Amino acid sequence: MTGPFHLDDRYDEPDQLRDQLRRLLRHRAMIALGIVLGLLAGAALALVRTHTYTSTSEVLVRSTTDPFGTVAVAADNQVSMGTEQQIAASAAVAIRAAHTLGQSPSRAGALQDRLRVTNPPKSQVLRFEFTADSPKRAARGANAFAEAYLADRKGRNDAAVERATRGVEQQIAAVTKQSVKKKSDDGDSADSADSVNSAVQSEIATLHKRVSDINSRDTTGGDIVRSGEAPRHPSGPGWPILLVLGLASGLALGILLAWLRSALDSRVRSADEARAALRAPVFGMLPRQDHDGEALLTVGHTGGDRTEAYRALAYRLRQTGPSAGAGRVLVVAPRRRTATGEVAVNLAAALAECGDEVLLVDADPDTPGLATRLPLVPEDARTPEEKSLPEGSLPVDAGTAGRFACCSSAGTGAYVQAGVSGAVHRVLSGADSDTTVVVTRPLLEHADALAVAQRVDGVLLVTDLDTTRRDDLRRVHELIGCSGGNLLGTVLDAGRPYGRLRAALRRRTQRRPTVEPAIPIVEQSAKDDTLTVSRG
């Protein structure tokens, strides 16, 4: 959209950055793991590098590769430093260095692994860097390789001298033999003999002078301009630098792991994620409790942030419902959880505190009835209106919040799936309360919730932070929309410390008694589709 009402997206960038930062900080364990791994790697590298020392020696290579014919050749072109660098790191030089160090030739390969030969740019200097486990060995190795290279290059130059001298001597012998033969062919002519003799002597003198020049040349390969000394400190960076590098690398690794964990995490972590996946508003967020108490009903009995969150949820539901109250609300969770009944009970108490006549319907046949865990009003303390409640409905004392009626299924599991929705329909049709709160089995595990959703004014979804997956919320939105129900929104539950673990242990250790207490059970007849109330 263009025009004067166009909003610049640049103002959303700080919010996006803060959101990304919050997503990363949710995975503090990954960041801490990366930092620990980085510090351990830095410490390990520091320990390894602590026991290694490096000594350096430098050799100035003489500016000639052919010391016997370098006329009109520039000094920079008289030696190939790349070739000399490869020769210095060759096995032949390593064998000479092994002899210098008093080791066998079989150790030449191990010595080569510890050697590093470099050539500084625009120079005729070879730098020998030798690493050993002690300063003295490092210095001896660097000097041994420098001397071995010079000895190898001197040997190559001496071999070139011998080859050149041998060639000139062969020329001298050939000239002498040729002159003798020529004298015999010319006969006894004196003039002829003198001319041949002078020419031969001149050529032989030239060749002898060349031999003298060859032998007078210096065959030394170069000079050691820097001898290796025993280093005072280990090679490489020290402890502080390595630890700082490890810390920085670990932090980068931790941020990367946190980002990957956040990108691959499909659980609901915030209200924005729940709102985007469910495409419905978030009515409230239940804070995490400091303790895992056994009391199911807290509104009207105890205070706290969680109790006030229930009251705020009730006020918001009253705004979305009819003018007389919140109407008929189905409280359900995507999958099995323990807080669904708690949310329904406290929501009913909060609505009763607002002045509504509330009926709580427990339509979950797979769990023990809510009435067994609620503070029921004694028989002698009931008002005439409470005594005239329909059979199966019992008044609940919500303390300062007032009272509300409860119709429980008692958890017998005797219903078929179609019977639950039919029974709830009968109860809702006969109820004259302003507000009815229904709690039933999980929506994604049983079809009861979809059938009940058609008979209520709205559905309130209970979403567990850090447990419920976004795919489940998308499925809930599609199923409720296809069934014709009205999805009001969701309430986020931060949970309780160790609440899920204790609930799981409670379910494993719980044993149903042989004789259960008499609890009202609402059942549906399979023949005439009527409701009957009996005592179980």
From TrEMBL:
The keyword Transmembrane helix applies. Keywords: Membrane, Transmembrane, Transmembrane helix. It comes from the Bacteria. The keyword Electron transport does not apply. Residues 175-197, 210-233 are annotated as: Disordered. Gene3D superfamilies: P-loop containing nucleotide triphosphate hydrolases. The chain crosses the membrane at residues 29-48, 239-260. PANTHER family: CAPSULAR EXOPOLYSACCHARIDE FAMILY, TYROSINE-PROTEIN KINASE. This is Polysaccharide chain length determinant N-terminal domain-containing protein. It comes from Streptomyces diastatochromogenes.
